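Appendix B, Record 12. Input sequence as logged:
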Amino acid sequence: MAGNYSSTVIIITTNMLIDLSIFTLPFMQRALIGGIIIAALLAYYGIFAMLRRSSFFGDAIAHSSLTGVALGVLLGVPTLIAAIVYAMAVSFFIPILKKKSNLPTDSLLGIILPFSMALGVILLSVIPGYQPELISFLFGNILGISWNNIYLMAAVTAILIVCIFFFQKKLLNISFDSDYATILGIKVNLIDTLYHVSLAVSIVLGIQLVGIVLVNALLIIPAATARIFARSLKSMFVLAPIFSVSAAVVGLFASYYLNFPSGPMIAVTSGLVFLLAILWKNL
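Logged structural output:
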């Protein structure tokens, strides 16, 4: 009896050591910090994207950034910086194209997404050899984040959060009724441009976690999950980052122990949280 009890204690203690040992791995430490920062940032912006019914914008910008990545490789520029600059340029010109073409935003995004994606593929085709970093942009490489990436993420995130917080009330007015916002004297075009450019930057940062294909998993799904439970807009801004960060952390640990790709595992975890939220709400 005593022997069985001792064995059980040893097994439990060993499992605890295995669980805690993950924090001693430098790449997991960086992945955890980066995941928390970007997951919270994307969830925050995801609320505005959902309120404005512009969920497709995230996909369009993410796929467009592939051209920026290809240009970065061709010109010898850091791919993250090149992707951010290209995404900012695309998001800056979207309102201009909308005004000049009189087309709705979703139609313009439907044009920009395949054009930029195809252009990126063409540019990549002229690059000799295999580019493993480009694969990580498609599906994410959170385990490959460096400390320099962490510092850049933290600095950019702090700037974006401060900016969006400063314009939050005006942006909410525009999101609910842009005509009424104009009557209130709000510079709708300027605020819209600032929002789209900052959203583009946050999306490109998120690509390092879950990739171009899956970035909406942390942009839209946590905001949608928060909307199921939230009784007010203020509570959505609290719940969405919690769901997003939880999905990033749980998905990261699950991918480590199950030996699954980290980006897709984070996206799957976010989706499962959403499904569980629906089941819980209905029950």
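The first helix runs from residue 2 to 21.
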